[in-house]
Structures are given as C-alpha cells and as structure tokens.
C-alpha cells in the first residue's frame, strides 16, 4: 500500500536527514514499521493547519548519535545496532493531559 500526500495543499515544507552511519539494510518487521511510519506521517499531515508555514522534518540516525537525549534501558549509547527515526512537525500537537 502506497500513501501519497500533496504537500502543496497545506504549504508544507519538508527536510530530511539520513546519517551516513545508517546501514544500507536493517532487519525489521517491514509491515509494522511501514504501518507506524504511515500513521505518524498521516497524523502530521492531518493536523497541520492550512495557510501557515508548515514543516515536517524526518531524521534517521544510529542510536550512538542520539547524544543522550533519551536513555534507553539495556541499550548502550555507543551501539550502532539500533537506529532512531525521528519525525517532527509544526502541527497542533498533543495536550499535556
């Protein structure tokens, strides 16, 4: 299943960063990963308001580049066996409650 978004409809600008240290192939459950990413992008696209300067940013990098933003239990921060997929947007976000 391929999902397409017309980023021009909501004036969305996008940027992406993929670290040179991310391996060319990874071992994962393709279907689950695709479901998760499509859900996140769908929410980003859905909740961004029209007529504003909207941005979506995607970054993919090994956990060793995380620089202690988040600590994961039982995962060493210098371990390149794990990657981080980070998606940021200028949508309305979630409430604190």
Written description of the protein model:
The chain is α+β, with helices and mostly antiparallel strands and 97 residues long. The chain is 19% helix and 24% strand. It contains one helix and three strands. Strands 1-2-3 form a three-stranded mixed β-sheet, with helices on one face. Helix 1 links the parallel strand 1 and strand 2. The longest helix has 18 residues. It is elongated, with a radius of gyration of 15 Å. 5% of the residues are buried.
* Biggest sheet character: 3 strands, mixed
Computed CA radius of gyration, to the nearest angstrom: 15 Å
How much of the sequence is in beta strands? 15-25%
Uncertain runs: none
Order of helices and strands: EHEE
Mean pLDDT: 76
Number-wise, the strands total 3
What is the straight-line distance between the termini?
34 Å
In brief, what are we looking at here?
This protein is an alpha+beta fold. 19% of the residues lie in helices and 24% in strands. The chain is elongated.
């Amino acid at each position: 299943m391929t999902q397409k978004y017309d980023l021009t409809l909501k004036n969305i600008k996008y940027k992406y960063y993929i670290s040179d240290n991310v391996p060319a192939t990874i071992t994962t459950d393709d279907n689950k990963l695709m479901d998760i990413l499509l859900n996140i992008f769908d929410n980003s696209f859905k909740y961004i308001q029209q007529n504003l300067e909207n941005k979506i940013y995607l970054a993919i990098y090994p956990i060793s580049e995380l620089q202690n933003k988040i600590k994961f239990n039982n995962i060493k921060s210098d371990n390149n066996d794990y990657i981080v997929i980070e998606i940021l947007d200028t949508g309305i976000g979630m409430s604190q409650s």
